[in-house]
Amino acid sequence: MDYVDVIYCHRPDSSTPIEETVRAMNHVIDKGWAFYWGTSEWSAQQITEAWGIAERLDLIGPVVEQPEYNLLSRHKVESEYLPLYSNYGLGLTTWSPLASGVLTGKYNKGNIPADSRFALENYKNLASRSLVDDVLKKVNGLKPIADELGVPLAQLAIAWCAANPNVSSVITGATKESQIQENMKAVEVIPLLTPAVMEKIEAVVLTKPKRPDSFG
């Protein structure tokens, strides 16, 4: 490609000064290779430092962050990054909306389907950590809410992520074409997530992070 719209610094590089990264990304933009740059899995402190450097040097700061975000993992998006949305207009491209497949409901009985990613050797440790009773209890509690709306649990979980006003887009993983087609139908579920439905979801997952009193 001649250029990309956005280039991400995937994971922070502890061996490289952030100023060097900011300068490098602006070089890429100046060359016309990208229009904007963003970060992936950076902390709020690192993003703030990058913006401070960019403003000091009259350069472009990161406009988007790519964090994990789902019904079971919410702290960064809903707590740590809160001041960044208003201070820098930061957008989010989130990943793992289904928590590695846990929020599809296919592991509800503790069984691991042979064709699922948790059946792969590389994922066995992840499976043992994720398929704990507390998580499965929450997933089981979400299923009736999805049934009431007449949608698959996976679509409900993806729609929930996309409904966050600070989320610009949601990255969905898939191993089959049919999964992609099903996941995209989540767009139609977003309007169904009324305040009442969202309250039901919160009552089941109990994962909403406590909002900090200040950012001093």
TrEMBL record:
BP GO annotations: monoatomic ion transmembrane transport
Zinc found in the keyword field: no
Residue ranges annotated for the NADP-dependent oxidoreductase domain, each copy included: 2-204
Keywords (A to Z) from UniProt: Ion channel, Ion transport, NADP, Oxidoreductase, Transport
Transmembrane feature ranges: none
Top-level division of the source organism's lineage: Eukaryota
This protein's record includes keyword Oxidoreductase: yes
One GO molecular-function entry: oxidoreductase activity
Pfam families per UniProt: Aldo_ket_red (PF00248)
Residues in coiled coil: none
PANTHER family in the record: HYPERKINETIC, ISOFORM M
Family membership: Belongs to the shaker potassium channel beta subunit family.
Protein name stated in the entry: Putative potassium channel beta
Originating organism: Tripterygium wilfordii (Thunder God vine)
